């Protein structure tokens, strides 16, 4: 299903790399925005019926909402370190500003979830983010669990994490799924936002590539796709994995998976 792969640039909104709403995804709950903040210029985001994380991908910024201001130190790139972040509630006006002295724009991801409760804004320190190494051998990968249940419970429906896969390794393996609302599974709409580093292993680049697979038992979804930096893949249901970056090109994905069942 080629409509599940949204290539780099296809979701752009002006200078912003990604604007994906539940409506444009063809589902109900989950969205993603990636904003490019010019140094010293304030951007205002209205959350409407969605709660969101503000997660720096490169650079830092301030987040002002409901009379509070959080200063996010951020990071050089998604491949260099774990970042701090902010949670912002639904029905809020959020002002974002990159430091005026910064030489490059800041990029921030806003994984979003349609929700019911309105919670207060909150800051998430980088040092409180659990870093988990999963798998072994060529299936080793790192998970930054900044916004998952049991770690970050200050959210109504929103779940999110970062996954870093060394070049040549496999992640999301064995394949797994969240759908079929049983005692152990819930319905979730999942977004994979891919960033792939160049040969320096630090700065995202379109020169590298990786592979991703999603499928269902009945064959309604049977996708094995090539992904490059900035691509988005939508997972409405079914098994997903593996994700594997080509040798020489590390991969990260920002994964968000809200749904009607709430937290997984």
UniProtKB/TrEMBL annotation:
<dbReference type="InterPro" id="IPR024203">
    <property type="entry name" value="Deoxy-glucuronate_isom_IolB"/>
</dbReference>
<protein>
    <submittedName>
        <fullName>5-deoxy-glucuronate isomerase</fullName>
    </submittedName>
</protein>
<dbReference type="InterPro" id="IPR021120">
    <property type="entry name" value="KduI/IolB_isomerase"/>
</dbReference>
<keyword id="KW-0413">Isomerase</keyword>
<dbReference type="InterPro" id="IPR014710">
    <property type="entry name" value="RmlC-like_jellyroll"/>
</dbReference>
<dbReference type="Pfam" id="PF04962">
    <property type="entry name" value="KduI"/>
</dbReference>
<dbReference type="InterPro" id="IPR011051">
    <property type="entry name" value="RmlC_Cupin_sf"/>
</dbReference>
<dbReference type="GO" id="GO:0008880">
    <property type="term" value="F:glucuronate isomerase activity"/>
</dbReference>
<dbReference type="GO" id="GO:0019310">
    <property type="term" value="P:inositol catabolic process"/>
</dbReference>
């Amino acid at each position: 299903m080629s409509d599940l792969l949204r290539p780099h640039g296809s979701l752009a909104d002006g200078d912003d790399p990604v604007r994906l709403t539940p409506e444009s995804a063809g589902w109900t709950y989950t969205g993603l925005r990636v904003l490019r903040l010019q140094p010293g210029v304030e951007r205002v985001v209205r959350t409407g019926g969605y709660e969101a994380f503000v997660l720096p991908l490169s650079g830092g910024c301030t987040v002002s909402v409901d009379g509070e201001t959080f200063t996010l130190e951020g990071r050089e790139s998604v491949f260099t370190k774990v970042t701090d972040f902010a949670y912002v509630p639904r029905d809020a006006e959020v002002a974002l500003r990159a430091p005026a002295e910064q030489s490059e724009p800041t990029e921030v991801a806003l994984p979003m979830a349609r929700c019911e409760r309105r919670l207060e804004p909150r800051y998430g320190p980088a040092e409180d983010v659990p870093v988990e190494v999963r798998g072994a051998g060529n299936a080793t990968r790192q998970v930054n669990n900044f916004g998952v249940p049991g770690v970050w419970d200050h959210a109504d429906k929103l779940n999110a994490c970062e996954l870093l896969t060394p070049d040549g390794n496999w992640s999301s393996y064995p394949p797994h799924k969240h759908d079929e609302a049983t005692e152990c599974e819930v319905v979730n709409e999942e977004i994979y936002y891919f960033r792939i580093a160049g040969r320096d292993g630090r700065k995202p680049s379109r020169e590298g590539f990786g592979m991703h697979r999603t499928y269902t038992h009945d064959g309604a979804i049977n996708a094995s796709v090539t992904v490059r930096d900035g691509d988005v893949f939508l997972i409405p249901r079914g098994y997903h994995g593996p994700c594997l970056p080509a040798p020489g090109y590390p991969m990260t994905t920002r994964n968000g998976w809200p749904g009607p069942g709430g937290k997984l």
